[in-house]
Recover the amino acids of this structure.
């Protein structure tokens, strides 16, 4: 008799590749003490009933109801944690006003531990409740708040990647909210790395510190160079924004005479552990560079509508095997749900495909062959995110970490429904209320 | 002492015009026995406390909690009621396949009263739960199902406008799902009008029958002419689709040598009681015609992404004083929530404004001055819908019908928040779970 920690009995969906979703009805997902999927037993397998009986006897069997299904937990590749109180606010303002009047003043408040704890604990819990088991966070400039974010991730057993935000360029940052100097920024980044290591001691799911230059405009060349070195020294993930908007894209060209991606690359900031947010204005050369380096893109479809100035050509990127995952980009995006971003990714891609302006003739209006499906988007929200963070999760697969969600359909089916239909409805209609349970590394956290 | 049926005490938001939203804190919305807002008493008014005390004594005071606000109920101008079981399905199929394989077979099932009752009762309840107090429905070809829809509206006290769908053109409709002839279609339409009148007897909120040619391709000229006459004879609202897609737009030009809107107009189907769905491909001449006739447009932003081939220029239409309301277009749209359509209306308008294709230079990429705000979209969901249906509702205003919703913020504020911020967060984040109560004509129905 094999002792599993938990045996989940029910139907599941998991991405096989960017175009295919696998489905198994009434299977057994057997999770071991380490929180790994040790074995998947299908309905017809010989020892199916033996394993069910053993698990029943040991009290480790969790049977899904007929209307529940098991999915991999989602991976959110881009969250500005301190912007959580502003989600849904001021989205009709231009970027600079949004930053100067709403975003920077709020982020500056996270030097207070008490406030940071209040906000971050709610955010981490909210993301988990929405089925997001892993998140890659931008913190704030000040480490007091950042450490509270780390503690919240640890307390809730959420897989967290957290970066101390670096912004030391006095020309593009307000006096009340910036690193004092490149040296100070690098020291604080290194301190953060060590403090996270301390907090991680004896934790099941350690938090990973992330090298985080906010974006090119807010950073001096000195700090970018230093951060590239720190990333190499500690072998850490890197996150930033890249070619998010016409403005940002143009900034690099004006100040450095080079593409945004080229500058980041020259400072050692584009590696196979890098995740760059947005990328809506990346050109062919940038994309080739991302592919060569193994850089992941955080596709933030809701936020991109407000600040991206174009639609990320996700279908093209997926077909070229560029790593692409999904990001909510709180609070450039208003919704903490990856489901909602899956839907917007599909919708934005259709508008890229068909075009938007009725005064242009149909043949010239759109881009054609740009529309993605619910399956493509689900792949990004799971496998694409996992590949970007080099994690063995995002799939229901033997040997993979059991970061999972159990969801039910929002509305009645009024009759028979094939599994493909169930999958589409889940992608289109699931909200936080339909997510019954969430598990990270084999432990139920919702 | 004046006896009000209900006095709602709390904050409210209501659209003043397409650009402005009014807000009052701690006001009294006094509703009389007819379900009309008889008086609005503001916090500073002389008799405020007297009215509060009287209402308390009579047990008619309903005080909102600090985090609740009162909003007008939403008006959904376009719902295909029999497509409800398919919401969220098959959206990546081309229109023709979507109709032939998914939509027509499902709609044909509504000749069974039992099935129709099951689906429609759930739909009507779902829309009410989502804050939609009025809906304009396409039924199906068969009146058995249509009368079940009328009964569900009456049973749930939902303000319903229901049409028997007419489609008699054998070239564009399947044999198993069409009117037998133009004469049969017209007789059935007239029967439906009479049967609705019978069901309406002694009902507080009668259902309005609606003249409903499905769209130009599915109708013969004979039936269109006859429907125009019936609309005039009974002075009834009219609904159809107009210039929804390149295909539909092109159909009229090919078969009639005229614009879609011109053909409908010539058959007497464009009046100040007409609501035309989508209109994404309307040209300047069509829009002028809509304005001249007083036709309303059902803006269905989610559905338009899948089937509209372009983005409705809502800002332009609003600035030209064309009537525009919101529609969910179940199941061309996947979501029964008008809130979700408000969000997509904003997002699609931003993509129209900025453009979608990063390979086009910024100055040529978008349409510019096309982005709408949350306030514009809220106006469409309330006042725009009410104007399109010629209803004295959609605003919190003396003399208007009390179709209202009481909602609370989804997430904590983490501190002070100005009313404008609260409004934006409500528009961006409200789901069915945050809608605490819904009232139609002064009666709580949720």
């Amino acid at each position: 008799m094999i002792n599993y920690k938990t045996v989940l009995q029910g139907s599941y969906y998991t991405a096989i590749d960017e175009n295919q979703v696998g489905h198994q009805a009434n299977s057994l997902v057997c999770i071991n003490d380490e929180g790994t999927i040790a074995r998947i037993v299908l309905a017809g397998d010989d020892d199916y009933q033996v394993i069910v009986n053993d698990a029943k006897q040991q009290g480790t069997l969790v049977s899904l109801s007929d209307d529940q299904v098991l999915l991999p937990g989602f991976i959110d590749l881009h969250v500005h944690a301190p912007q959580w109180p502003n989600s849904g606010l001021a989205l009709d303002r231009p970027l600079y006003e949004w930053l100067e009047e709403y975003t920077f003043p709020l982020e500056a408040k996270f030097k207070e531990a008490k406030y940071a704890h209040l906000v971050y604990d709610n955010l981490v819990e909210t993301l988990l409740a929405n089925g997001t088991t892993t998140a890659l966070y931008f913190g704030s400039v000040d480490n007091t708040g950042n450490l509270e974010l780390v503690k919240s991730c640890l307390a809730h057993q959420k897989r967290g990647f957290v970066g101390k935000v670096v912004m030391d360029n006095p020309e593009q940052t307000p006096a009340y909210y910036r690193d004092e100097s490149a040296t100070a920024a690098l020291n604080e980044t290194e301190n953060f790395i060590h403090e996270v290591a301390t907090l991680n001691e004896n934790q099941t799911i350690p938090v990973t510190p992330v090298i985080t230059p906010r974006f090119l405009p807010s950073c001096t060349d000195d700090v970018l160079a230093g951060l590239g070195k720190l990333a190499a020294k500690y072998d850490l993930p890197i996150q930033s924004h890249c070619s998010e908007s016409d403005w940002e894209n143009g900034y690099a060209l004006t100040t450095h005479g080079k593409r945004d991606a080229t500058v980041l690359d020259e400072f050692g900031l584009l590696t196979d552990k890098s995740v760059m947010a947005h990328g809506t204005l990346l050109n062919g050369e940038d994309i080739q560079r991302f592919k060569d380096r193994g850089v992941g893109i955080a596709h933030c479809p809701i936020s991109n509508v407000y600040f991206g100035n174009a639609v990320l050509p996700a279908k093209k990127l997926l077909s070229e095997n560029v790593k692409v995952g999904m990001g909510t980009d709180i609070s450039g995006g208003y919704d903490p749900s990856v489901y909602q971003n899956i839907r917007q990714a599909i919708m934005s891609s259709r508008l890229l495909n068909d075009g938007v302006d009725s005064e242009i003739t149909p043949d010239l209006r759109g881009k054609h062959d740009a529309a993605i499906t619910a399956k493509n988007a689900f792949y990004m929200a799971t496998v694409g995110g996992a590949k970007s963070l080099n994690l063995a999760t995002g799939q229901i697969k033997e040997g993979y970490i059991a970061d999972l969600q159990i969801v039910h359909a929002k509305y009645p089916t009024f009759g028979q429904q094939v599994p493909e239909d169930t999958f589409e409805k889940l992608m289109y209609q699931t909200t936080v209320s339909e997510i019954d349970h969430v598990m990270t590394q084999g432990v139920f956290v919702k």
Q: What stands out?
A: The domain at 74-388 of chain A is CATH 3.20.20.140 (TIM Barrel). The mean pLDDT of chain A is 97. Residues 182-200 of chain A form the longest helix (19 residues). The two ends of chain A are 29 Å apart (CA to CA).
